[in-house]
Write a structure and sequence with these properties.
InterPro entries: Transposase_17 (IPR002686), Transposase_17_sf (IPR036515)
Structural class: alpha+beta
Protein name: Putative transposase
Helix content: 25-40%
Shape: elongated
Order of helices and strands: EEEHEEHEH
Radius of gyration: 18 Å
CATH class: Alpha Beta
CATH superfamily: Transposase IS200-like
GO molecular function: DNA binding; transposase activity
Number of domains: 1
Length: about 140
């Protein structure tokens, strides 16, 4: 197993699934300080652990965050995203009541949309060539 593309195992599966996620604050308001981002990283790492996933990398700015997660194939990415956004929004509102001024109308910290991109592995062209080169049984 190399650190660049770690292979994980489950009971009946071997996998390497990574996703790049981006969550934007509601109305794209400038909300986060370094203290907020640090707490968000901890919260999101805990949520990932609950899903048997791992928060590999986290960073953000005042109006959005980036996550790199690795997750098992038994988890629907949309379920993980909904939990990450829901739990982090609820906990941040509890722990930082001053954030409420940024989302008083919507009662939500995050925009309803998000970005998710698959990452890792070989480029699509290389995979396509590999699959095409496989011999079919006669």
């Amino acid at each position: 197993m190399d650190n660049q593309h770690p292979i994980r195992t489950g009971r009946h599966v071997v996998y390497a699934m990574h996703a790049h996620l981006v969550f934007v604050t509601k109305y794209r308001h400038d909300v986060f300080t370094d203290a907020h981002l640090s707490r968000l990283e901890t919260i999101m790492s805990d949520v990932c652990a609950d899903f048997e996933a791992e928060l590999v990398e986290f960073n953000g700015e005042d109006d959005h965050v980036h996550l790199l997660v690795t997750y098992p194939p038994k988890i629907a990415l949309a379920r993980l995203v909904n939990s990450l956004k829901g739990v982090s929004s609820r906990r941040m509102r509890q722990e930082f009541p001053e954030l409420e001024r940024h989302y008083w109308r919507a009662k939500r910290l995050w925009s309803g949309s998000y970005f998710a991109g698959s990452v890792g592995g070989a480029p699509l062209d290389v995979l396509r060539q590999y699959i095409e080169s496989q011999n079919r049984p006669n």
